[in-house]
């Protein structure tokens, strides 16, 4: 049998008919570190075992390919990665201090040494290498005895060795280098830049313009400035020299060099916002150039462009403008919340950029530059300009514009985005997004108040310095759109009432409160106003007040327009062709809306503290609407009882009471339908009803052509009938809850005039109580009573004189007007 090849440097050759035991093969694959650990202890035994194994081997055949004495297999490669470095070794293991290495046996070992450790298998003497010694086979029993003794020794040393395993290339998994990643965090502390500095030494010989330009292009700003100053001094000396101007540098060259220096400064500062890590050292040179030029200006040695600090700030502004231009701005066609999304992205960009300034740029500037403060102020300025352009809709080009010049006005809204004067007008939600951004988000924790910007961000730096004109424009736009929204909502309320109720003759959707009915719209309107005011109050108290004004004004207009529209649409319910159900529904509409207007006024009272004048005006409008509805009800009642009241004060009236009974019956039915009014409304309505019905009862005296002709029995009967019916009306309305007790004596006063046998008896004692309690009675009203009583007589002249005399001594009262409205 041919000799087997060596594996990992262990001998495996032998003569035909012999083979390694399993224990021997496993021992060949044991890690080299195990041999290092016990080499000193088991070296004699190992050498003995190897010598016996070699002696057992036979002479190889001619076609066998046994390894030569110097032939060795390549050891297993182990790779250790420490941080970013990977070390590959052949036969050795190279380990960094503190690294963890995963070996082929699946276990992880930790090494604490800081130097490289190299481990390998014990060296095998040449006499024990394959090919170094060959021999014939020995007795197998003797070999087994030797192996048994070796195993006994190994076990006594607590060495576990199961013998070598046969090489199985078909099933053995591919061994790949183990990779251990060791992560080390290195925090670099850059020294802070001081305000003091030293200029580089001036050149010994005058440099050329191209050499200085090369220094500028390479970013060696301070050295370039020193060379420019050297050339400037040389030029000044040539100008004052008697020999005249030399052929050296010219004024144009100096101006070009100064311009190139400033342009380079602008480029460095502008790009420091986007790539601060690349320009940190360059920024120091920029600062020194600015400081040196300012120092020379203060010393009266300025000869350059001047205004270097302003140019530096303009470059900072241009760099920030680039950051602003990179913020994505969608179009309303693609996203209805385009502006709110854009402002959110803008706030995120601001925080990230200022955090970058704080962490990376702040240590590249001297303290006198107040770099963080400067960048915050520039953001304030550009954000205000950006919001102004968003509101006004001026042309805003994208970030693809040329921005090389420090003073170039770059208007940016987003990549490949343009806002023109043809853009859709801002909606109410867009104005709200702007105001929320100004009042809450910008100075809040999400942007300028972010913990990531502390402690550099002071309280005085957080607030956006938006000009008052911009705020007023946005606020007016928000109020205008809110007013339009409220107007649409109220028009919708009126449209629903008209289409769903009045046109269909449907019963109102009642909402019972304290025993009376309400329409749903007062609560809907109150909820809408509360939401709008709360939303505005989250921004500012002043805005909440303005929104409250807007809402109250629109509700007042709605109230004014509601009643005429209602009366116009529901007139058919009380026409001659209408039935009792229509009339009942008509009354129900009135009572429901009277209660609803009252409830609406109560809801709006909560805004009196912030808008007292508007609440007062709305209350008057609501009272006017309630009064119109009340007058509509009373007018309908009068038209219902007038056919019967016109038959009063006639001959039929003296003999029959059916007409009067019809009046009282219809009045009582009408009252029962009105009991759904709230208690406050019902009590006031009953008093008004009492007064109107009493006036309607007296009105026939003014128009009747009937006369008792002075006949005592007719006058007496008329007096008794009038007194009885008047008391019946008073009792009827008192039971309804009327408090108009002042109307009761009128029946007695008129009856007393009618029952007098002679007009000569109508003296001052009879007239004075009537005039005292009812000062609005006129001579015309008194003459109508006398005319109903009988024919004219000379005594009426005396009565007129007495009445005129008494009437002058009594002033008219506004609280007791009974005769004034009787035509």
Structure description:
It is a single chain. This protein has 823 residues and is mainly alpha-helical. Helices cover 56% and strands 2% of the residues. It contains 26 helices and five strands. The chain has helices at 22-28, 32-56, 140-156, 209-218, 221-240, 251-272, 276-298, 308-325, 338-361, 371-392, 428-441, 459-462, 468-502, 521-537, 541-569, 580-604, 612-645, 651-655, 658-673, 679-698, 700-703, 712-736, 744-754, 764-773, 779-789, 795-808; strands spanning 77-82, 85-90, 100-102, 108-110, 181-182. It has a three-stranded mixed sheet, with no helix packed on it. Strands 3-4 form a two-stranded antiparallel sheet. Helix 6 packs across helix 8. The longest helix is centred in the middle third of the chain and has 35 residues, at 468-502. The radius of gyration is 56 Å and the shape is rod-shaped. It starts with 21 loop residues before the first helix and ends in a 15-residue tail after the last helix. The model is unreliable at 1-144, 163-187 and 394-422 (pLDDT under 50).
């Amino acid at each position: 049998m041919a000799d087997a090849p060596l594996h990992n440097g262990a001998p495996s050759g032998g003569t035909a008919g012999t083979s390694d035991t399993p224990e021997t093969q496993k021992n060949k694959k044991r890690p080299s570190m195990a041999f290092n650990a016990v080499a000193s202890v088991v070296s004699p035994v190992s050498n003995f075992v190897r010598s016996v194994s070699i002696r057992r081997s036979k002479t190889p055949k001619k076609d066998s390919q046994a390894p030569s004495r110097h032939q060795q297999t390549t050891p297993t490669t182990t790779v250790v990665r420490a941080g970013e470095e990977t070390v590959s070794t052949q036969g050795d293991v190279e380990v960094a201090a503190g690294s963890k290495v995963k070996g082929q046996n699946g276990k992880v070992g930790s090494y604490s040494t800081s130097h490289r450790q190299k481990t390998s298998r014990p060296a095998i003497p040449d006499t024990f290498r394959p090919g170094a010694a060959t021999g014939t086979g020995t007795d197998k029993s003797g070999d087994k005895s030797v192996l048994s003794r070796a195993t006994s020794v190994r076990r006594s040393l607590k060495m576990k060795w199961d013998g070598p395993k046969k090489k199985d290339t078909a099933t053995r998994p591919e061994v790949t280098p183990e990779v251990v990643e060791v992560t080390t965090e290195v925090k670099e502390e850059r020294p802070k830049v001081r305000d003091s500095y030293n200029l580089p030494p001036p050149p010994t010989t005058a440099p050329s313009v191209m050499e200085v330009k090369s220094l500028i292009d390479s970013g060696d700003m301070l050295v370039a400035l020193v060379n420019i100053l050297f050339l400037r001094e040389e030029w000044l000396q040539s100008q004052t020299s008697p020999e005249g101007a030399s052929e050296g540098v010219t004024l144009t060259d100096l101006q070009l060099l100064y311009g190139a220096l400033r342009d380079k400064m602008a480029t460095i500062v502008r790009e420091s916002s986007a790539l601060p890590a690349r320009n940190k050292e360059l920024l120091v040179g920029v600062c020194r150039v600015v400081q040196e030029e300012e120092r020379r200006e203060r010393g009266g040695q300025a000869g350059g462009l001047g205004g270097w600090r302003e140019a530096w700030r303009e470059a900072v502004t241009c760099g920030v403008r680039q950051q602003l231009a990179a913020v994505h701005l969608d179009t309303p066609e693609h996203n209805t919340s385009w502006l709110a999304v854009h402002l959110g992205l803008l706030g995120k960009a601001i925080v990230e950029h200022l955090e970058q300034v704080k962490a990376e740029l702040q240590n590249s500037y001297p303290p006198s530059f107040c770099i963080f403060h400067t960048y915050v102020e520039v953001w304030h300025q550009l954000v205000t300009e950006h919001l102004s352009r968003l509101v006004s809709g001026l042309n805003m080009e994208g970030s693809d514009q040329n921005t090389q010049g420090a003073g170039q006005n770059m208007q940016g809204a987003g990549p490949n985005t343009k806002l023109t004067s043809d853009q859709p007008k801002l909606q109410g939600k867009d104005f709200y997004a702007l105001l929320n951004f100004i009042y809450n988000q910008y100075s809040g924790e999400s942007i300028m108040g972010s913990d990531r910007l502390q402690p550099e961000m002071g309280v005085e730096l957080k607030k956006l310095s938006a000009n008052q004109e911009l705020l007023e424009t946005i606020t007016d736009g928000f109020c205008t759109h809110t007013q339009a929204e409220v107007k649409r909502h109220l028009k919708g309320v009126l449209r629903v009432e008209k289409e769903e109720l009045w046109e269909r003759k449907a019963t109102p959707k009642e909402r019972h409160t304290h025993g009376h009915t309400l329409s749903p719209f007062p609560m809907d309107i109150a909820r809408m106003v509360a939401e709008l005011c709360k939303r505005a109050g989250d921004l500012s108290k002043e805005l909440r007040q303005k929104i409250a004004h807007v809402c109250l004004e629109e509700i007042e207009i709605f109230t004014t327009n509601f009643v005429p529209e209602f009366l116009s649409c529901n007139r058919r319910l009380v026409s001659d062709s209408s039935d009792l159900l229509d009339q009942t529904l008509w009354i129900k509409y009135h009572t429901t809306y009277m209660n609803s207007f009252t409830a609406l006024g109560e809801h709006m009272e909560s805004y009196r503290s912030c808008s007292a004048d508007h609440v007062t005006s709305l209350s008057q409008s609501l009272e006017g609407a309630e009064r119109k509805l009340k007058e509509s009800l009373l007018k309908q009642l009068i038209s219902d009882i007038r056919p019967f009241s016109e038959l009063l004060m006639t001959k039929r009236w003296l003999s029959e009471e059916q007409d009067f009974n019809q009046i009282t019956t219809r009045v009582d039915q009408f009252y029962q339908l009105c009991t759904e009014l709230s208690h406050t409304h019902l009590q006031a309505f009953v008093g008004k009803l009492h007064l109107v019905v009493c006036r309607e009862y007296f009105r026939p005296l003014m128009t009747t052509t009937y006369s008792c002709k002075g006949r005592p029995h007719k006058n007496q009967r008329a007096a008794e009938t009038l007194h009885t019916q008047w008391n019946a009306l008073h009792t009827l309305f008192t039971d309804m809850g009327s408090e108009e007790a002042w109307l009761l004596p009128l029946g007695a006063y008129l009856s007393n005039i009618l029952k007098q046998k002679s007009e000569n008896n109508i003296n001052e004692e009879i007239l004075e109580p009537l005039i005292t309690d009812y000062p609005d009675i006129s001579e015309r009203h008194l003459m109508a009573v006398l005319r109903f009583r009988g024919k004219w007589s000379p005594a009426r002249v005396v009565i007129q004189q007495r009445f005129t005399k008494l009437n002058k001594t009594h002033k008219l009262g506004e609280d007791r007007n009974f005769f004034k409205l009787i035509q």
